[in-house]
């Protein structure tokens, strides 16, 4: 049985492979042989390769130049016939070689007009055909350009065999060296080279003399087109897509051709300029987008064939239509698509194999029989459907052929009449309006489908009949009519009548517009363009003549190819989706200058078909039921026996399979909580040598680590009591192994419940999961988060900052000169430097922030929950300083430095990627400005940061150079007017004599921690000054100094040094310490301890700017506060704002009750002073009473004040 199952599964694999192969193919290798060297002439093929269009179609394409690196040239025909190339580029020579017996097929014409021209120097005129035929013409003998020249002479009455063609290189040097009088070559090539040499040229285009040959044309071998039509269709489709891209992106493709593709024989001084020139003129050859790329006109090929036959170039006659590639039609018949058949067989094999593996061959036999019946029934049903569709298509095709023939006859008749009008005008080029009207009247009488006739000499409408109602058209210049000009150009270019439309007429109705060129002979016997004749054709009358409007016509009809564009044109009759409908029949309607494609589908279907299919299905259903009934009895008996055998086998092998295959140990616990059975595998995992007796639940729990074991015990009790199932992951007692414990409650026939469980060792899985998770999220070298984890944390941080209305900063850190370390000492030492740098960065930030290794020697840092940009600036400064310190490599100190870019969210970016990019850009700004520094992303912040940085550096220097000084501002007692105290205020005078405002440098000093040094320096100097002032005073003047919260938060010895200074100074000078309410809100026991110590020394504690911060009456009772300073913002509102006056009075009343002295600062008017004195404010301070001044001025003031008091 096992061998049978194995065979079935192998067969299934083969069937599956066959099934998949019907839907997939590998890339086909294809070689395209060019007809010249690489240049813009072949731009579309390069674009198809570069833009991946060939690859999209499953093609691996190699494009080969006509010239080889060794200077040898190849024949595209020989490369194609030999099989070295699958496609080639040619022209008229394709038809010539087809006539010589070569099996060739045209895939797609690319140039609708040939670029070939006869080119001569300005000194050699090309006056007319006869004169040109007397010249020496340089041409390539086997090239299609020579065929076009010969055709031009033939078409204009000159024997092409007597023209003197010379075999010389097609270069300007040939003309300059007088080896030929003219070249037969591409006009754009000659003009570009002449422009480089500064030469003027004469040009004669065969297309202007009746030769309408196609230019560059893609072709292949007939053998390939027949054997692999799908490959040819894919190559054609990708090529046309490439040409569309190239013609829409000319400059891009021209530049890439010039930069990447070589030339070996014919070189230009400026290859790029030549390609751009070709790109500029290529539209006049492709006619894109007026004519769809790859458009084929069979009549034009027929005309070319006739000319070549007259030139005796066609050795073996053939039908020109036979050389045109016909795209393969993918069958819509399900009988031909074998995918469903392979699917049925594969499914049957799967089910049969599964039945055999499970030991149910009878079921497998039933499935196989059903699959066979289904296969036969579907085959017959498909055959019936297909036969019906074929008959329906034949009937539709017969009717459609009649309609197509009538349409072609009607359009050809109308164009013939129009051609007659053109011939009449050519014979009478100077006719009058009257003569034109008389002739046109007769024409319209003969052909009533023509609505009117118009003639336009020099493309300006001059004649029209009938004139009434059409006066507005007189004088219309077609050159400036963008809608009609493309069709007119086609008629002139191809020198044949063309049909445009159908178009909606202004006077109502729809019409086709027929146009024919009019050419006349000039005095030199040459044909020149006189103008154009046109006539609208009543399209409804044409449809009616063709029978399309017959109400009994049982067909859905659609026509596409507006403006004669064939199958690639717009749908103008019926519904466009009809062309893509399964079973549709199509035919081509050909006429001069273009073609249409008509599609038809039957309106009704064979009514007997559903009944036939239903009868077939019922018959096969009955057969299937009878066969199933015959097999059912035998199947039941075999199934019963196999079921019992399976149960016995599964029970016997259960424990062995669990233990050996899954590495799972089993255990049992009774309803008393006693573990009475542990399998050998379970004992091994739990570290037990053997289990001689039962084990209590507590002992069992002790085998696992705590507290997990305690949780497991509770879970097992719930299993016993509530019948729950558990699945836990626990560690062993020694924590060396991870174990998965599963327990299920079971109840026997007597109602006794016990627990049956399993233990599985999942240590390797846990370790692997942890390792995978760590490798996925952390850098293997520095153990920092990698980009994935960093981006996740950045996104989380940005979301949190948005919710909390906070700022986050992203620092992009790049180690300067790191490459030098790698180059000089090797990557191993470089890795050590990276690890050390990572450690230093981590030490400079908070634990809640994130550091990541971005790449190489780049790190990124997330700073969370910021209030403003000062914090990242400070951290960046610290990082620069830290990373600028020496690294030790092989016992040698080396230096890196760091460039840091800072971007803030949400001001600089809204998404993580943009924030990283902006920080990176800021980092590079640092690199450009000298490295080893930091830079904010925005210009405004950068400017502010630079100012702060410069001021910070200057402040450090000022402290070191002792540039800081102080001014003293008097504090006056209101009842006596005496100066009882003064406040020491920091001042900074630079070496050049300029002053820096405290408003600028004090905040920076506080933010950077320099404020502690500033406070100490100012206090030290002020104490010395006050000691001198108070030396001869009976009542010493007190010194009021400001203390910032930073002093109490520092971890160095700054607070201890300051306290030591205060203690020594208080012995000689009364000290008042001014603190802010912000210091009191810090809830620091250290702050409270220091303030109480100061109070014990007799030092007054004053709350500065009282009422503007976090005021609380509890501060006045909790801390030893003896003074309050009313902020100047309240004092300035005296006499202006009653509310402020109320607050002042409240503070004064409260202070009086608490026996606290009050100082009002900012007093600047007599009104303010009077108000405060009346309300018993103890002290005042402000510009009215005395501005801050230096020691000498303050000393003089005090001396003068004493004299005034003594004199009084």
Keywords:
disordered N terminus, D-Maltodextrin-Binding Protein, domain 2, 7 domains, 40 strands, extended, alpha/beta, eight-stranded mixed beta barrel, 47% helix, single chain, 1208 residues
Q: How many separate domains make up the residues?
A: 7
Number of strands: 40
Indicate the overall shape.
extended
Tell me the CATH topology of the largest domain: TIM Barrel
CATH top level class name of the largest domain? Alpha Beta
Unreliable runs: 1-25, 329-338
Strand order of the largest sheet: 32-33-35-36-37-38-39-40
Under the CATH scheme, which architecture of the largest domain would be assigned?
Answer: Alpha-Beta Barrel
Helix content: 40-55%
Largest sheet: 8 strands, mixed, barrel
Structural class: alpha/beta
The termini sit apart by 133 Å
Number of helices: 42
Proportion of residues in extended strands: 15-25%
Mean pLDDT: 85
Please tell me how large the radius of gyration is: 51 Å
The name of the CATH superfamily of the largest domain reads EAL domain
């Amino acid at each position: 049985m096992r061998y049978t199952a194995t065979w079935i599964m192998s067969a299934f694999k083969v069937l599956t492979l066959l099934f998949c192969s019907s839907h997939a193919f590998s890339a086909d290798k294809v070689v395209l042989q060019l007809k010249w060297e690489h240049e813009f002439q072949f731009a579309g093929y390069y674009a198809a390769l570069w833009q991946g269009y060939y690859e999209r179609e499953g093609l691996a394409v190699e494009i080969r130049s006509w010239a080889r690196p060794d200077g040898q040239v190849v024949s595209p025909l020989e490369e194609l016939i030999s099989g070295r190339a699958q496609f080639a580029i040619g022209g008229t020579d394709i038809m010539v070689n087809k006539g010589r017996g070569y099996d060739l097929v045209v895939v797609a014409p690319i140039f609708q007009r040939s670029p070939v021209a006869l080119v001569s120097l300005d000194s050699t005129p090309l006056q007319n055909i006869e004169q040109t035929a007397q010249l020496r013409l340089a041409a390539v003998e086997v090239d299609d350009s020579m065929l076009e020249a010969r055709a031009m002479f033939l078409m204009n009455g000159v024997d092409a065999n007597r023209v003197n063609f010379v075999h010389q290189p097609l270069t300007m040097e040939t003309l300059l060296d007088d080896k030929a009088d003219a070249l037969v070559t591409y006009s754009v090539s000659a003009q570009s080279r002449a422009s480089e040499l500064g030469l003027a040229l004469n040009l004669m285009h065969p297309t202007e003399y009746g030769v309408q040959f196609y230019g560059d044309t893609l072709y292949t071998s007939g053998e390939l087109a027949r054997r692999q039509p799908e490959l040819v269709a894919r190559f054609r489709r990708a090529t046309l897509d490439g040409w569309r891209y190239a013609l829409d992106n000319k400059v891009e493709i021209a530049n890439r051709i010039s930069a990447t593709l070589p030339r070996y024989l014919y070189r230009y001084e400026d290859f790029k300029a030549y390609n751009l020139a070709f790109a500029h003129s290529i539209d006049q050859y492709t006619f894109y987008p007026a004519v769809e790329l790859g458009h084929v006109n069979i009549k034009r090929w027929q005309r070319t064939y006739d000319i070549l036959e007259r030139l005796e170039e066609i050795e073996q006659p053939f039908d020109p239509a036979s050389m045109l590639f016909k795209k393969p039609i993918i069958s819509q018949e399900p009988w031909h698509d074998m995918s469903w058949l392979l699917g049925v067989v594969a499914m049957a094999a799967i089910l049969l194999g599964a039945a055999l593996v499970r030991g149910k061959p009878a079921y497998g036999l039933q499935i196989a029989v059903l699959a066979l019946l289904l296969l036969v029934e579907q085959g017959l049903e498909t055959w019936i459907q297909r036969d019906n569709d074929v008959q329906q298509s034949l009937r539709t095709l017969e009717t459609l052929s009649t309609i197509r023939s009538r349409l072609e006859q009607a359009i050809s008749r109308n164009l013939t009449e129009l051609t007659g009008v053109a011939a009449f005008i050519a014979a009478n080029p100077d006719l009058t309006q009257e003569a034109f009207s008389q002739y046109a009247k007769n024409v319209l009488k003969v052909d009533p489908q023509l609505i009117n006739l118009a003639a336009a000499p020099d493309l300006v409408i001059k004649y029209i009949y009938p004139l009434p109602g059409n006066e507005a058209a007189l004088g219309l210049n077609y050159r400036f009519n963008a809608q009609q000009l493309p069709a007119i150009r086609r008629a002139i270019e191809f020198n044949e009548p063309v049909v445009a439309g159908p178009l909606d007429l202004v006077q109502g109705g729809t019409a086709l517009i027929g146009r024919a060129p009019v050419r006349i002979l000039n005095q030199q016997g040459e044909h020149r363009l006189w103008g154009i004749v046109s006539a609208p054709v009543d399209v409804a009358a044409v449809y009616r003549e063709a029978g399309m409007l017959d109400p009994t016509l049982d067909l859905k009809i659609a026509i596409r190819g507006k403006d004669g564009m064939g199958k690639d044109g717009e749908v103008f009759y019926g519904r466009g989706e009809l062309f893509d409908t399964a079973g549709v029949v199509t035919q081509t309607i050909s006429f001069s200058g273009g073609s249409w494609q008509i599609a038809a589908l039957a309106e009704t279907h064979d009514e007997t078909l559903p009944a036939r299919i239903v009868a077939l299905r019922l018959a096969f259903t009955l057969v299937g039921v009878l066969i199933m009934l015959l097999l059912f009895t035998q199947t039941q008996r075999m199934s019963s026996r196999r079921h019992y055998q399976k149960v016995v086998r599964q029970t016997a092998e259960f424990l062995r399979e669990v233990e050996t295959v899954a590495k799972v140990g089993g255990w049992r616990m009774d309803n008393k909580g006693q573990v009475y059975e542990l399998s050998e595998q379970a004992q091994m995992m739990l570290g037990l040598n053997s289990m001689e007796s039962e084990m209590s639940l507590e002992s069992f729990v002790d085998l696992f680590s705590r507290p997990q074991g305690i949780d497991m015990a509770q879970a097992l009790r719930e299993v016993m009591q509530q019948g729950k199932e558990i699945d836990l992951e626990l560690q062993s007692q020694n924590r060396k192994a991870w174990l998965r414990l599963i327990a299920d409650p079971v109840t026997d026939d007597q109602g006794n419940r016990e627990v049956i469980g399993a233990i599985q060792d999942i240590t390797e899985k846990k370790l692997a999961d942890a390792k995978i998770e760590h490798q996925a999220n952390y850098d293997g070298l520095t153990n920092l988060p990698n980009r994935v984890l960093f981006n996740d944390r950045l996104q989380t941080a940005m979301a949190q900052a948005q919710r909390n209305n906070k700022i986050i900063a992203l620092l992009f850190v790049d180690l300067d000169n790191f490459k030098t370390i790698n180059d000089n000492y090797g990557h191993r030492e470089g890795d050590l430097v990276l690890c050390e740098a990572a450690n230093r960065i981590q030490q400079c930030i908070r634990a809640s922030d994130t550091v990541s290794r971005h790449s190489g020697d780049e790190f990124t840092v997330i700073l969370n929950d910021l209030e403003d940009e000062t914090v990242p600036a400070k951290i960046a400064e610290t990082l620069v300083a830290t990373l600028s310190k020496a690294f030790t490599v092989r016992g040698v100190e080396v230096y890196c430095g760091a460039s840091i870019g800072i971007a803030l969210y949400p001001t600089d970016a809204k998404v993580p990627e943009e924030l990283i990019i902006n920080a990176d850009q800021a980092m590079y700004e640092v690199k450009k400005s000298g490295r080893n520094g930091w830079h904010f992303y925005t210009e405004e912040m950068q400017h502010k940061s630079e100012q702060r940085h410069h001021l910070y550096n200057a402040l450090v220097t000022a402290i070191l150079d002792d540039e800081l000084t102080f001014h003293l501002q008097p504090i006056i007692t209101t009842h006596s007017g005496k100066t009882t105290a003064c406040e020491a205020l920091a001042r900074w005078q630079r070496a050049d004599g300029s002053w820096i405002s405290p408003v600028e440098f004090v905040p920076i000093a506080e933010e950077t921690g320099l404020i502690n040094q500033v406070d100490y320096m100012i206090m030290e100097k002020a104490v010395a000054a006050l000691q001198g002032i108070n030396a001869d005073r009976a009542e010493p003047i007190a010194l009021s100094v400001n203390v910032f919260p930073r002093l109490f938060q520092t971890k160095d010895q700054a607070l201890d040094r300051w306290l030591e200074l205060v203690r020594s100074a208080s012995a000689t000078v009364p000290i008042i310490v001014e603190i802010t309410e912000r210091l009191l809100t810090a809830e620091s026991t250290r702050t409270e301890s220091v303030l109480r110590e100061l109070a014990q020394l007799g030092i007054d504690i004053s709350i500065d700017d009282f009422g503007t911060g976090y005021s609380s009456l509890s501060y006045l009772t909790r801390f030893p506060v003896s003074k309050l300073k009313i902020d100047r913002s309240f004092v300035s509102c005296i006499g202006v704002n009653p509310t402020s006056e109320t607050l002042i009075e409240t503070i004064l009343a409260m202070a009086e009750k608490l026996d606290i002295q009050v100082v009002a600062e900012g007093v600047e008017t007599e009104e303010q002073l009077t108000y405060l004195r009346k309300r018993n404010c103890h002290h005042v301070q402000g510009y009215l009473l005395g501005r801050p001044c230096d020691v000498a001025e303050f000393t003089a003031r005090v001396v003068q004040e004493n004299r005034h008091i003594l004199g009084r």
